[in-house]
Amino acid sequence: MTRDELGHLLRAACTITGDRDVLVVGSPSILGTFDEADLPPTATASIEADIAFLDDADRSKADDVEGAIGELSAFHQTNGVYAEGVHIDTAIYLPPGWRDRLISWPLRAAEPADPRFLEPYDLAVAKLGARREKDLVFVDALIQANLLILTVLRERCALLPEKHALVQRRVSGFLANYSK
Question: Which of the chain's termini has less CB crowding within 10 Å, N or C?
Answer without folding.
Answer: C
